[in-house]
Design brief:
This protein is mainly α. It has 14 helices and no strands. It is globular and about 45 Å long. About 45% of the residues are buried. It is found in: Membrane. Keywords: Cell membrane, Membrane, Transmembrane, Transmembrane helix, Transport. Pfam families: Mem_trans.
Length: about 300
Amino acid sequence: MIQVLTGFGVVVAVIAVGWLFGRTQAEARRGLANLVYLVATPALLFDILLRTDPRDIFSANFLVIAGSAIIAGALGFLVFRLRGRSAPDSLIGMLASSYANAGNLGIPLAVYILDDAAVVIPVILFQVAFYAPFTLTTLDMLHRSRQSTLLRNVVVAFRNPMLLAAVVGLLIGFLRIPVPDLVREPVALLAGASVPVALMVFGMSLVDSRVVVNGDVLIAVALKNLVQPVVSGLLAHYVFGLTGPALFALVVLGALPTAQNVLTYALRFRTNEALARDTGVVSTLVSLPVLVVVTVLLG
C-alpha cells in the first residue's frame, strides 16, 4: 500500500506545481497543451521506439492491453452516442474511458508496485503509436468534414505528428537504421518534457475549475477503473493463460486512471474539455482504492 501511495504522491506533487503556476499564468495552458501534443509526445514515442525492438511489442501483454482498451473504449463510444453526444465528443469520451495514465502514473507505480518499469512500455507504445494517432486523426478529419475528400483525409492523417513519429520510429526499428547522437539526444531531451508538462497542464486546468461528477463522468470512470481491469484480467487468464505476477501486472495496468493526455487532446481540438478534465480527476481518486484491492487480491 505504501508503494501505491508513493506513486500517487509523485503525480500529485507535479500537478500541484501546475496548479500554482496556472494561478498566475493561466493564459499559458493552451500553448503548453500544444507543446505536449505537437512536440513532446511525438518525441517520447520516437525515443521509446529507438530503444525498443518493434518485433518484441506484439506479445501477449500487448494484445491484452490493446484488447482491454479497445473493448472499454468502444463501449464508451457507443454509450455516449446513445446518450446523444456528438461523434467528436464521443471520441473524447472513448479516450476518457480507456486511455490509461501509463507514463505519468504507470511508470512510478510499475517501479514501486511491480518492481519493473518495462511492463509499462507496451501500454505506452499501443496508446501513443496506435490508439491516440487513430483517434486524433479521426478527430482531425471530423473537424474538417465539410471540406473532406479521400485525398484530403489521407493528407490530414499523415500530418498527425504522433502518427508520423510512430511510422518513422517503427520503420527505423524494423529496418535497423542507425540513428546518430545528434538526432537521438535532442529527441530524448524533448521526450522528457512530455510527462511533467502534461501533468502541469492538468494542474493548470484545475485553477478556478469546479469538478462536476455527472452521468458522463460516472460512465467514463466506471469503464476505466472497473470494466477495463476486469477485461484485462479475463483476457490475460482465460485467453492467454497468464497467472501470478504476469496477471497481476496486467490488471494493475488496466486499473490505471484516465491519462492527462486526454485533456491535452480535448484542449487541442476544443472538444469535451470538461469531461476529459473531470474524468481525469475522479478516475485518479477512484483508482487508489481499486489498486489497493487489486494488490491485496493478486499481489
